[in-house]
Amino acid sequence: MKLLILLVIFLNTNFIFSQSKISGSVTDSENKPVYGANIVIEGTIDGATTDEKGFYEFTTAKSGRYNLIVTALGLSEKIVMVDINPGQDLIKDIKLTEDEVKTEEIVVTASSFTSGENSKVTLTPLEIVRIPGADGDLFRALTTFPGTNQVDEGSRISVRGGDPDEVITILDQATLYNPFIFDNTYNTSSYSTIEPWGLRGINFTSGGFSAKFGNALSGVLDLKSYEMTRGRGMFLLAGIGASSLAGVWTSNDGTVGATFQANQSYLKPFFELNGMSQEYSKVPEARGFGGTVAHKFSKTGYMKFYANYSGDRIGILSESPSYKGFFNSTNDNFFANYKISFAPTSVSSLSAGVSFSAFDRKQSYGVLDSRNKDYYGKIRMDFSNPVTSKIEFNTGAEFEYAKSETSGKFPLYFYDIGTDAQSVDLDLKNNTGRVGAYAEGLFRISDKFFAITGIRTDYHTLSKNINFDPRLSVGYQINSYNAVRGAVGLYHQYPSLSQYQRTVDNNLNAESAIHYILGYEFNKENDIVFRVEGYYKDYKDLVTSFQNTQFPQQGSGFAKGIDVFLKGKLENKLTAWISYAYSDSKRKRFDGGDLYSSAYDITHNMSLVSSYNITNQWTVGASYKLSTGKPYTPVVSSIFDPVNDVYIPVYAQENSGRFPTYSRLDLNLQYITSVFDKFAVFFVALNNLLDTKNLYLISYNRDYSEKIEIRSNNIRIVYFGMGIQL
């Protein structure tokens, strides 16, 4: 079950291993070498950045006729058509001219890890699938960067001591509200449904993000997919626990394209190989299917429709002080998005999108028998226009609709959940809308100094609450390799509809946080990257709860810390990075209350990741994680309730206990070859090599006199399989 979603790892694996070398030089109109120019094959992640002598070199597995896109700061973008022959080297020298107005320049702001065709890559899809233990999962890969932590070793992430719900995921302007399977399931790790190979750009920001993003307190994962497909073909992957089939089709003139993908799990052979660490009444099952249709209707315009379904089923044995039985969960998730984009003028861009998602969850455990339905709709428009070569103006607006339905039987007391426990029947419905708008200016004050200033406003129809959030980011390029950056801004996020359901008059305002960020970065052509960044988040108006009791909206707190990141590359052989984060995150429920550790206060967190190309066919990788144990609230005694024949726990100060130190070592190995003259890949992964007994939960016996440590279901496992191009 641990690698259930490994099926995404080698989709489109033909991007990975190169067979042709493309090299050359880039010069300006005066025949001077251009340093830092980006060269990329259109529609791929294959490319390079020129060195001090204007030289570039990279390898690719592509063959045929392609466009090379060449960009450099202050110079016009150039597209060069090349013919790539398998196994043959290609030398292409390129000359760029001056540009008065720049439309593709990307400014990397504080707390941002970015990849894309027109920026220096920090995290690529290739690196995502090669990170041992990440299982080809984008979210898990992000947890190897400082400032992020996994929730129960799954794909949901916490950013700098904040709640996971404070992080939003955006795909082509649409918000992904539930991009996971097995989410919130007892002792079962969640996995994301996002396939990294379809992404043109990945921008993860752990604080100080742009005014274009609203209703988030901690972080933003902004994803952009490829506008159009390239080529035709299918790829089949079969592993010991799951299989998938993906395909792509492009019209002869390149104006129409489509993709599809489908996957299905079958975990019986996986359990037979690795053993079952848990008892199941319903063997975990996951499945999904979806696809895209795109049309390029002009030189600058395209439209794209995307739809995806994912579902999971599980019944896993769970033990609590008042009940032992199977926790059953069924989830169905549907998402669809339509986007259109074009250039109204030669330098401006306009994009609009409409999306819809539906999430249906059923859960049962003891007396609990519930069903939650969530529906979301969103309309968004963004406009960007460079005013001069030094100034760019961005603006946009969105409307977001949310509806929640909760029904079923719920335990009356959180500590009594047996099948005969007292319960309450609920049938709750609630909905709200949010209208947001922003305006933002990007100012390059000099060749070395830039500033991004913006303001956004959001109005919440349920609470009748309106907010204004000013934000500012600045950066100074000391020289070619060194830069300092900072950011300050106000951020608001409205409570969930389930929290509004506990109020009488929907009298909850938006929660708020002020971000203060200052950092330094050394980046030598992305071969050596060093970053250190300090931050402080000031929380106010938090909605707090404890043991199913929601307190008045007087919660406050802070999160402060420092993130350190070091990454290095050795030619086309070795890629490695180490990240370390120190964090101190505290909360209090009301004015004058005591401070306590937040639920995601991980004081120390370190990740070490490495990947080595032994040959063009063999690649091996290793990763190691070490972190402070997460907080929990211990039980110090109990009181017997003779009426309900159950013990009532008496708790110590909230989150005053700590799990043991967390550690884990993962390995993987990949081999590229051909089978029946078809491209093929074989892979094997070994997770938790040392079989470290990390904890999932601290539980107790019936009268709470004995503590029971429940081990994480992520035991040592081996997973293997193969993929072949059809």
Structure report:
With 726 residues, this protein is mainly β. The chain folds into two domains: 13-95, Immunoglobulin-like (Sandwich); 109-725, Maltoporin, Chain A, CATH 2.40.170. It contains four helices and 48 strands. The strands form ten sheets. It has a 22-stranded antiparallel barrel. A five-stranded mixed sheet has the order 9-16-17-12-13, with no helix packed on it. It is globular and about 90 Å long. The chain starts with 19 loop residues before the first strand and ends with a strand. 43% of the residues are buried. The model is unreliable at 1-18, 100-108 and 115-121 (pLDDT under 50).
Low-confidence stretches: 1-18, 100-108, 115-121
* Structural class determined from secondary elements: mainly beta
CATH architecture of the largest domain: Beta Barrel
CATH class of the largest domain: Mainly Beta
CA(first)-CA(last) distance: 27 Å
The number of helical runs is 4
CATH superfamily of the largest domain: TonB-dependent receptor, beta-barrel domain
Strand content of the residues, in percent? over 45%
| Overall pLDDT score | 88
